[in-house]
Amino acid sequence: MKEVPSCSCGGASVAGQNRIIFACGGVANVGQLSNLAAIQLTQEGFGSAVCLALLAAAPEGLAGAVGEANEVLIIDGCPVRCAGKIAAAKGITPDQHLVVTALGIRRGGALEFSDADLETVVSAVWEGKGRTVDEDSLLRPPREGGCGCGGGGCC
Q1: Which of 4, 66, 128, 140 has minimal CB crowding within 10 Å?
Q2: What pLDDT digit, counting tens, does each position of 19-42 carry?
Q3: Looking at the domain assignment, is residue 149 inside a domain?
Q4: CA atoms within 13 A on the CB side of 86
Q5: Would 4 be classed as within a structural domain?
Q6: Model confidence pLDDT, tens digit, residues 110-152
């Protein structure tokens, strides 16, 4: 009998979690910051980071765990809001949705960020800044020429 490989990127471990965190994993600095913030928030006990690709793949067990969570957090890198769009396509409405560029961090190359930038994102989540949405910052189109991540304008 063929053994099915299991995923170890958060899907099986989210049952019973108070908060579930989905983060952009884009190649631009703001996507990388989103992912690093999710990891740091998990380490700090804020919640449990879960792979966005796992959500997109739609495993049945993850949908149930998300439905049982007290809070769902989405951290997007830029106004394209890829993580938010994936969650919406799966019927998930986040309790908190943070966009890194709305915090004043400019998009750049994958390694163009500082520890202070990471702390800005993590602190914003702890402070609940993603609970109030500035629609202008969420809906502003990406800058001319895209974000530089190679994804055709996405981050």
Answers
A1: 4
A2: 999 999 899 999 999 999 999 999
A3: no
A4: 20
A5: no
A6: 889 999 999 999 999 999 999 865 544 443 333 344 444 444 4
Count of domains observed in the chain? 1
Neighbours of 142 (CB within 10 A): 17
Identify the residue whose tokens are 């500082």. 114
Q: How far is CA 81 from the centre of its chain?
A: 9
State the Cα–Cα distance between residues 31 and 41, nearest whole angstrom.
Answer: 15
Could you give the angle at the alpha carbon of 10 between the alpha carbons of 101 and 34, nearest 5°?
10
Q: Note whether residue 60 is domain-resident.
A: yes
Question: Is 6 within the bounds of a domain?
Answer: no
Task: For residues 9 and 76, give the distance between their C-alpha atoms in angstroms, rounded to a whole number.
Answer: 18
Give CA–CA dist 41/64, Å, rounded: 22
120: domain range? 23-139
